[in-house]
Amino acid sequence: MARKHRAVNALFLAPAVLSFSLVMIVPFFLGIYYSMTDFNGIRSVLTFVGFDNYKTMFSEPAFLYSFLVTLEYTVINVVLVNVVAFFLSLLVTSNIWGKNVLRAGFFVPNLIGGIVLGYIWQFIFNNVLTNLGVSLGIPFLQKTLIGNKNTVIWAMSFVNIWQYAGYIMMIYVAAIQGIPANLMEAAAVDGANYWIRLRKILIPMMANSFTITLFLTLTNSFKMFDLNTSLTQGGPAGMFMMKAVKTSEMLALNIYNTAITKNLWGQGQAKAIMFFILLVVVSLIQVSINKRREVEM
Predict the structure, then answer these.
(1) CA separation for the pair 85, 91 (Å, rounded)
(2) CATH homologous superfamily for 35-296?
(3) Is the pLDDT of residue 296 over 80?
(4) Quick check: 131 pLDDT over 90?
């Protein structure tokens, strides 16, 4: 009977396992093979080049700069998205009037697709804010923020925070609502003010949610592609290691441009493999650190 149940379970699992294998596992191992060839997307006879694509990648200024820009963008977003989302969650779980409307309003930007969002904010940066800067006499706004290499990453981060903070806020809201109200009330009766209750009770009891939100914002920032493509296309241009580079071209967009635009599929695949390894390592380190923090808290 148990054998029959196992056969039935295997039968039901087979379509999902087959689909996952064809879409994820097989392409992943094929990608490793292609990363060691001179594949250009067309050529049927491939030349095995070993680790040459990986060596080329690490000597390419555009890729190294994309790596640094991605790190900068990730640090900015991990910090600011979580800070903004946390304070928004405190706001919408307080006793203010219309908190449910605010909760929905903060979440709505997350429903807009990244490509559409990028074009909307491109118009805002290039037209609305520049015209506003001219009208009000504000020099900082008279030139588009996404056309300046010193402000373009901050502009992208602002758009991402505007879109993503509401989603992270909902995770914090769920964590706050899961904390027993009588625990906070007892602390208030004992004389603990709001900030002490926040620091000593609320934040420690939300440790699990911090692990989740930090992981989500970290991976979301590293994998940013659609907003990067539609908002800046990697521009403006700049110099790095005496070479011209795109100052807002992040890793995902750099991989896309290498493989699709330049038809260097082997090099693009090598970058994708390194990108995968980097993302896995960073994510595992972040989760392990946060898990230890959960125990300490």
Answers:
(1) 10
(2) MetI-like (1.10.3720.10)
(3) no
(4) yes
